[in-house]
Design a protein that fits this description.
Layout lengths: L2 H17 L4 H10 L5 H10 L5 H27 L5 H50 L4 H11 L3 H14 L4 H12 L2 H16 L3 H59 L1
Helix pairs in contact: 3-5, 4-5, 5-6, 5-10, 6-7, 7-8, 8-9, 9-10
Length: 264
């Protein structure tokens, strides 16, 4: 690009941000970014990661705006340095913003799915510990508190939040119900429902928890078998499309070479 245009444009852009002393432009951009997309869906995904506060939603939007700002700054620098054409620069501005928004939200969804798989993997062991504690004579709330203090992992931290809510005056069943809704796990949903029914009807909690532990172990076994089946299919792709054709080529090469020799 011609320096007679790029240098004044750079100074004008710098002066524009310096003139915005009260951060009105930045505040307007941030307030408008809060209404981009489905806020309820984003807050639900953040709550699955244990980040359900309003500040967590705003921090996520700030991180998105930071990535977009850095990318646009690099693109503008390349444009002012004459490395890109002005048409490509103008077209790249919305494309960069949209791509960063999509990538960050896809990454957030992937993190939610990964955390849910880890929680469901921890769930059978936690239910067995809860069964042993209740069988030893502790109440469900005391057993959950013991597990939240002794165990490590995502589920133990979620139980710690439940215990804090119970100590603040909420009932155990309502706190567990909020937990199951927040995590959106079928296994935890069934466990909370059976536990609430047992507490309401006064039935044996040890038998209910033992049944839940066996069911969770069976579900974990089915999940592992399903993952193993998918891995077998993935392993067949390089075998069928790479190793097998090379093996056939090595087997047929001597015959093809002899045919060329006789043809010559």
């Amino acid at each position: 690009m011609n320096p007679e245009f790029s240098i004044p444009a750079a100074f004008a852009l710098l002066a524009f941000f310096i003139a915005d002393t009260q951060n009105q432009l930045i505040g307007h951009i941030f307030s408008r970014s809060l209404v981009i997309g489905n806020r309820a869906s984003l807050e639900q995904r953040l709550s699955k990661l244990g980040r359900g506060e309003r500040e967590d939603f705003e921090n996520f939007r700030i991180s998105q705006l930071t990535f977009i700002g850095v990318a646009l700054l690099l693109s503008t620098t390349a444009f002012l340095a004459g490395l890109t054409h002005w048409i490509i620069y103008i077209l790249s501005l919305p494309l960069i913003s949209i791509c960063i928004l999509v990538i960050t939200e896809k990454r957030l969804s992937h993190r939610c799915e990964k955390r849910l798989r880890e929680i469901e993997g921890e769930f059978p062991a936690v239910v067995e510990m809860l069964t042993l504690a209740v069988g030893a004579g502790e109440s469900p709330a005391a057993a959950l508190k013991r597990i939240s203090l002794r165990a490590n992992g995502h589920l133990a931290r979620e139980f710690k939040k439940v215990i804090i809510e119970v100590e603040e005056g909420r009932s155990l069943t309502s706190s567990l119900d909020d937990l199951s809704r927040r995590l959106s796990s079928d296994a935890i949903r069934r466990f909370v429902d059976t536990l609430a029914i047992s507490i309401a009807r006064g039935s044996s909690l040890v038998e209910t928890l033992s049944h839940s532990a066996n069911e969770s172990r069976n579900l974990e076994r089915v999940r592992l078998l399903t993952a193993a089946g998918k891995s077998e299919i993935s392993m067949m792709i390089p075998v069928v499309f790479l190793i097998l054709p090379i093996s056939i080529l090595f087997a047929l090469y001597p015959s093809l070479a002899n045919l060329d020799l006789f043809a010559g």
